Structure formats: C-alpha cells, structure tokens
Amino acid sequence: MDNTFNFKRFGKYFASDLTRLFSENWLKVLCFGLIPVFALILSFMFSLFDPGEYTYIDYDSRVLWLTITTGIFTIWIPSAFYGYVTDRRSGSNYTLIPASCLEKTVSMIINAAVIAPAAFLAIYGVSDLLTTLVAGLPSSNSLMLKMPTWYPIDGFRVYSLISIHVMTLYFILGAVFFRKGKIAKTILVQFGLGVLLLFIAMTILTRINEETPEIMYGLDEKAGHALMIIQYAVQMIVLYTLIYFRIKKIQY
To answer: What is the DSSP letter of 181?
Structure first.
C-alpha cells in the first residue's frame, strides 16, 4: 500500500475502524462516563449509616473525581484500542488492511485522542448533571454548567482539553511501540523525559535570568499563554510524527 492519502479509501477505513472500536469498547467507555452515577449510589449507601441529613458530594470533590477518572481513562484507552497492533498475530492482520500508514495514523489519532475522550467527557458531564438533579441540587451546581465559570476561554479549560489530547498521544505511541508493559513503560519514559526537559528548561531560564533579567521581568500573561501553546504544538507535531513512523516501520 502506498503512503498517499486517499480520502475515499480513508473514509471507508475510518468508518470500519470506528465501528470495530465501538463494538469492542463502548461498554468500557460508558462505565468510565457513569462514574458520577456510581458515586451517587455509594454516597447514598454510606448516608444510611449517618442519621443526619443526606449531603451529596461537594463540588470540589467531584472535580477531583473527574480529574482522576480522566487521567486513568487517558492512560488506558490507547492500549485498549490499539495495543493489539504489536501482537504478532493480530498485528499481522493490521498490516494487511488496505489503507496507507498515513491513513492508519490519522484514524488512530482521531479515534483514540479525539472521539473517545470527547465521548467520555460528554457522558461524564451528562451523568454528573443528572446525579446533581437527583441529589436535589440546582443544575447550576453541575460540572457541565459550572465549569465555564472557572476560567476564560483562552485560559485553563482550553489547555486542559489540549493536555488530554497530548497525554493520549503519548500513550498511543507507547501502545504501538512497546510489545509488553505498554502503560508502565510509557509512564516511566514520560517521567524520565519530564525530568530531563525540566532540567533543560530550568538551566535555560536561569541563564537568561542571569544575563538578561529584563526579559524574565517582561514576561506577561499573554507571553505565558503563547509559550504554553508553542510547547503543546511542538509536542503534538513530534508525537504525530513518531506514531506515523512507528506504524510504518513496525515489524513482527
């Protein structure tokens, strides 16, 4: 199969790939999204041992639950979706699929790093809204309706969504790169890479502060946003490229 990108061929492959992933993993994604429902049931059960008035889980605790659940989902989903490509038997079938490496890469990234997280967050948001209403609280107290008041659109919320995408890309690369211990090895590599990059960044910033401190003092919030966007963009480009070449060079 050539390495060109044919939209018609890609459309057929993407549809079949998404259908396969949905049939194999829809229940798992649903369970992650229904965490607020499980939390409500547990809170009701524990309230039976407390004679006082029932109080639903407070907002900050639900934000923490969302953060933890999203982290676990981001780590798990790539291996669940595409971990099989490094298997000798299943992976051999993957190489025979009539689609180019570029088409397979694009489909993999869209499905695992865009559609799956979006579906999870949508289900989680609706579940939290319903459980908030069931618990007798106003809908304005739900995560879905209260999150927009956290930060402006160009602030934390956008970076959080981008960070979910970037984190998923790391674990996609780990899923198609490592044959065993995909999640554990990816975490170890991320940790080592993070320490190295932090050391390099601190060294550079210290040098700049010593030689031209006015540059450091001149950095404002907009400059911080720009630097954040640049580093996310660089990470995405590098990860897209590495995933593509790994799929292209994979051998069994």
So the answer is: S
Measured distance CA(172)–CA(109) in Å, rounded: 8
Residue indicated by tokens 């990816």: 186
Name the more confident of 136 and 24: 24
Rounded alpha-carbon distances, angstroms, from residue 77 to 70, 95, 148? 10, 21, 26
Taking the CB of residue 229, how many other CB atoms lie within 10 A of it?
14
State the Cα–Cα distance between residues 118 and 109, nearest whole angstrom: 13
Q: Which residues contact 85 (CB under 8 A, 6 or more apart)?
A: 91, 94, 175, 176, 247, 250
Domain boundaries of the chain, sorted by first residue: 7-249
The end-to-end CA distance of the chain, in Å, is 18
pTM: 0.87
Residue 87: strand, helix, or coil:
coil
> Distance between CA 160 and CA 183 in Å, rounded?
21
pLDDT digits (tens, 9 = 90+) for 131-185: 988 888 887 778 887 765 444 444 445 677 888 999 999 999 999 999 889 999 9
Interval 106-121: pLDDT, tens: 999 999 999 999 999 9
CA–CA distance, 13 with 16 (Å, rounded to integer):
5
- Spatial neighbors of 106 by CB under 8 A, at least 6 apart, are 5, 10, 14
Query: Which of 104, 109, 107, 106 has its CA nearest to residue 94?
Result: 104
